[in-house]
Write a structure and sequence with these properties.
By secondary structure, the chain is an alpha+beta fold. Among the domains are: 47-60 and 207-286, Beta Barrel (Elongation Factor Tu (Ef-tu), domain 3), CATH 2.40.30; 93-181. It has 6 helices and 12 strands. The chain has a 6-stranded antiparallel β-barrel. The longest helix is centred in the middle third of the chain and has 41 residues, at 141-181. The chain is elongated. Keywords: Signal. GO terms for molecular function: efflux transmembrane transporter activity.
């Protein structure tokens, strides 16, 4: 047999195998109906029974200094429980106290005011005498007019000194307000975090303290988008939290209006009142009542 004839027979054999192969494979595998395929797919994917969640502080407050300065004292430590109004940090107030003393001295100094009043009173007497003399034609009218002008200038000087004293009094109050703001107090009831400034450090743009509001706590659950309707319709929400695991009742707060496309989940937020639970704890919420939407 020639080489050409050999290759021709081989090509015919391959063509026959290709034609018969798919028919043979399909003959061994039965075709499933839509209902059978859905049933087998449901059996292969077990129903989801629990939703993962995390426990977070209700609020995180980063306390900032009202102005730049050096920290003089820190009255708390990380982990301390604080109430509203508790003193946390004091900034150095040496320069401000000196400015306050200067402002008080200016506000209390009546020397210039008293001198202006004495000049005014003297010019008033002079103007009265010249007015009488002018009426008797003993002095010229221009002399009397000059006395009137001097008296008016003296009155204006008194007004100017009084305004300066009023501004000095306002400066005293302004400096007192700034001094009070150098004492940084807690705006919330919570726990002091680790991000706490130390004495001697400069207070500026960075927070001087971080406060965590843990009563109540916030629980975030990551619910698959397909389960959100049935999940939200549940009458009760219980979470398994901590080690050893303990059951805690949750109160529904709100549902995020935006889904996470990467995980195809929607965040659902709850409130949890439990002194024994710490932020950062992992938890799971029972999904027994939830079903995938048809």
């Amino acid at each position: 047999m020639s080489v050409r004839a050999h290759w021709g027979l081989l090509a015919l054999s391959l063509t026959a195998m290709i034609a018969a192969g798919p028919a043979h494979v399909l003959a061994d595998q039965p075709v499933l109906s839509k209902e059978e395929f859905a049933a087998r797919a449901g059996a292969a994917a077990p129903a989801l029974r629990q939703i993962n969640c995390t426990v977070k502080p209700l609020r995180v407050v980063e306390l900032a200094a009202p102005s730049q300065g050096t920290v003089a004292k820190v009255h708390v430590r990380p982990g301390d429980q604080v109430k509203v109004g508790d003193l946390l940090v004091e900034l150095d107030t040496t320069i401000l106290k000196a400015e306050l003393n200067v402002a008080k001295a200016r506000a209390a100094d009546l020397t210039e005011l008293n001198a202006a009043k004495v000049r005014r009173d003297g010019l008033a007497i002079k103007e009265a005498r010249l007015a009488k003399a002018s009426a008797q034609r003993a002095v010229s009218v221009s002399q009397h007019d000059a006395a009137v002008l001097d008296l008016a200038l003296a009155e204006a000087e008194i007004t100017q000194v009084e305004q300066a004293l009023a501004l000095a009094a306002l400066e005293v109050e302004r400096t007192k307000t700034i001094l009070d703001s150098m004492q940084l107090r807690s705006p919330v009831a919570g726990v002091v975090g680790e991000n706490l400034i130390d004495p001697g450090e400069a207070a500026g743009q960075e927070p001087v303290a971080t406060l965590y509001v843990n009563q109540p706590l916030r629980v975030e659950a990551f619910v698959p988008s397909a389960l959100i309707s049935s999940f939200a319709a549940q009458d009760r929400f219980d979470a398994a939290i901590g080690t050893p695991v303990a059951q805690h009742s949750l109160s529904l707060d709100y549902i995020s209006p935006v889904a996470d496309l990467a995980s195809n989940t929607i965040s659902v937020f709850f409130l949890l009142s439990a002194d024994s639970v710490l932020p950062g704890s992992k938890c799971q919420i029972d999904l027994a009542a939830a079903r995938v939407q048809e």
